Amino acid sequence: MSDDATLLAERRSSWTNYWATGALHSCLGSFEENYAGDVPGAWREALAGLPEGSQVLDLCTGNGALPALFLGEFQAGNLARVVAVDLAQIRPDWVSGLAPAQQERLELRGGVQAESLPFPDASFDMVCSQFGIEYTDRKASLAEAARVLKPGGVLALVMHDTGSVICRNAREERSHLAWMAERGVLDAAADLCGFVARAATPAGREALAADPLAEQARLRLNQVMADMTLRAQESEVPDVLVQSQHTIFNAIQAAMGSGDAGNGRQALDWLRQQLAQSDLRLAELLECALDEAGLDAFLEGTGFVEEGRRALDFPGGQRMGWWLTARKPA
After folding, report:
1. Tell me, what's the pLDDT at 204?
2. How far apart (Å, rounded) are the C-alpha atoms in residues 229 and 278?
3. What is d(CA 195, CA 266) in angstroms, rounded to the nearest whole number?
4. What pLDDT, on the 0 to 100 scale, is given for residue 16?
C-alpha cells in the first residue's frame, strides 16, 4: 500500500471510530451539541438565497451537523434534497428523530472522497462544508465542487482559522498527549497491572506487600497521576487528562479484581489507540487551518468568484473560524 493510500486508510479508520461515538461534530473539546454563535445565522443567510426545490451537497459531513441544522432546527422548506457525504462510515443516530418527510429529503453516504464525487455534472444548487473541505486535497475537491454545481450555484464554507479557540485548544491537547508519552504514563500503568493482579488471592496479596518492585511501580504511577491532576487543574482543556486518568484507574481495578494483568492491559491498549488517533486528528486540524493569507489563496485558479468572507465567533466573542462564500459563474 502506498504512503498516500496508507494515510487515507488511517484517516478513514480514525474518523469512522470517532463518528461511531455519536459526536455531532469534531470539536467537542471546544463546545458541545451543534455549532452555536455566528454559525447558524451564516447558514440561514446562505439557505435563504437558494431557490425553491434546491439540491444541496454537504461535503465531509461527519455525523451530519449541517443536515441536522438544515432539516432539524431550520426545517428549510426551500430544500428538496440534502445529500451529505463523508470519507468515514457514518450512521448518525439523530436522523431517526427527524419527521418522516424530513428523512425523505436526506441522503447520507459514507466512504465518499470529496476529491472524487459520485454525482453528475451540474447536480446541485449549493455545495457546502463545515470544518471539512480544508482537510482534503483542496484543488481536487474544489474542482469537483465546481463540476457538480449548477451554473450560478453557491459554494458556502466554514473553515478552521489558525487564530481560533479551536486551534488553540487543539495545540494544548496535543501538548498533553506529548507529555503523557514522554512521562510514560500508560507504560507505568501497564507495569503496575502486572503486580496488582496478585491481589486477587490472599497469598498473592502477601507476596505483593513484600515485593519492593511492586512498591516502586505503585509509587511511580501515583506520582504520574498526581502530576496529571496538577496539569489538568492548570489547563483550559483538561479533558484528555481527566478521561485518561479515569480509564487508567479502571484498568488497574480490572487487573486487581480479576487476577489477570491482561484485562487491565487490554484497557490500556485501547486507550493508547484512542490517544494516537486523537493526536492524528488534532495534527490534521492544525495542519489544514487557514490564516488570512491561506484564505486569500484558497479559491485561486478554481474559477469560483468570491462573494463574501468574515470571521465567525462563538457566543462570548472567541474566534471560531472563517466563513467564505463564492459562486460558480453562470
Report:
1. 87
2. 20
3. 15
4. 58
Instruction: Please state whether 317 falls in left (phi above 0), alpha (psi between -120 and 50) or beta.
Output: left
What is the Cα–Cα distance from 54 to 72, expressed in whole angstroms?
A: 17
Amino acid, single-letter form, for residue 41: G
H helices present in the chain, as ranges: 3-19, 39-48, 65-67, 100-103, 138-148, 165-183, 185-196, 202-209, 212-233, 239-258, 261-288, 292-297
* R_g over Cα of the chain: 24
CA distance 181 to 260: 25
How many helices and strands (H and E) does the chain possess? 12, 7
Residue indicated by cell numbers 469560483: 304
Could you give the count of Cα atoms lying within 13 Å of 39 in the half-sphere of its Cβ?
25
In the sheet that 54-59 helps form, which strands lie side by side, from edge to edge?
A: 106-110, 79-86, 54-59, 124-130, 149-159, 319-327, 305-313
Q: 319 and 313 in contact (C-beta within 8 Å)?
A: yes
Give the residue carrying C-alpha cell 450512521. Answer: 91
Show the domains of the chain with their CATH numbers. 3-164+289-327 (3.40.50.150), 171-285 (no CATH)
Segment 9-29, tens digit of pLDDT: 565 565 556 545 544 344 444
Mean pLDDT (10-residue bins), the chain, 330 residues: 56 55 44 68 95 97 92 90 93 85 92 97 98 95 98 97 95 97 97 92 88 94 97 95 96 94 96 93 95 96 96 91 97
pTM, two decimals, is 0.84
Picking from 154, 160, 161, 109, the residue whose alpha carbon sits closest to that of residue 130 is 160
Amino acid 92: pLDDT: 83
d(CA 310, CA 321): 9
